[in-house]
Amino acid sequence: MTPRDDQAADLVGQAEALTRPIAKRPPEISFGGRVLFLADDAELIRRQLHEGLNPELTRDLKAKLRDQISTDEITPAYICFFYDETLGDFPYLGLEVRSGGAGGHGADGRAAADSTEAPIERGTVRAGGFICSVAGKRRGKGSSREQSPYAELMAGIKVVVSESIERIYNENCQNLGILTTTNFGLIDRIRSGEPIPLSEFTAGTDEITRQIIEYGGLFEFNMARLQGQVTLPAPRAAAGPDGASERPAASRGSQAEDAPP
Q: Can you spell out the DSSP letters for 89-123?
């Protein structure tokens, strides 16, 4: 293929991008499916994966949820050699939880090292038909690898529920189209297929993040932006040393270039 052919192909791709139909998610969304509770209890996880157990969220179960699940536990480094839907075979393979399911957590959110195991095997999350994954505090800490939420997405996870979610992991989920929430009250509604307002997942976000969620991810948002469907907020002026507002940095740069020496 010649450079001219490459240029022609690029132009065709751009034209298709500008005409491809892009729509927002509906105001209410329904799921309906299984919920995987990532508890600090290997036997409970195995029963969900292999015996079809669908536990109810009780106070005891919520107290057992693993805290501080890192992205390295969601997708260990060796799994990151994969880059496509194959990643859906691997979510949570590095997750270590308590073998007996009893006792508390250590300072890092894990049980004692001599009583842990990794109960999740390749392909079991995808085969289980789970659409929602639930954990405790600080979900997604550690490296910012996008393979982690992508592996969850490819395994069928559409919603992530945790007591707290680390910022970069949360943004990666939103960019890929996974919905995130800290509202445990939505779990039964997600499982039953009850319509849920999309605003439950956009509340408290900034204008751009809200639109990314509404369009189903960053790629769709940018396609809509290219087609003129997106309204971006005007950049806010930064305050100067005396408290007066200044022009945005980009404008200042242009002004400096145009100024006489």
A: G-TTTT--EESS--S---TTSS--GGGEE----TT
Domain ranges of the chain: 28-195, 198-261
Q: Which one-letter DSSP state was computed for residue 85?
A: G
Each residue's pLDDT tens digit in the chain (261 positions)? Answer: 677 766 766 666 677 777 888 999 999 999 999 999 999 999 999 999 999 999 999 999 999 999 999 999 999 999 999 989 999 999 999 999 999 755 444 445 554 545 999 999 999 999 999 999 999 999 999 999 999 999 999 999 999 999 999 999 999 999 999 999 999 999 999 999 999 999 999 999 999 999 999 999 999 999 999 999 998 888 877 666 665 555 444 432 333 333 334
Candidates 39, 38, 169, 40; CA nearest to 106 is 40
Q: How far apart are CA 12 and CA 4, in angstroms?
A: 12
DSSP 3-state of 84: coil
**Class of the CATH domain delimited by 28-195:** alpha beta
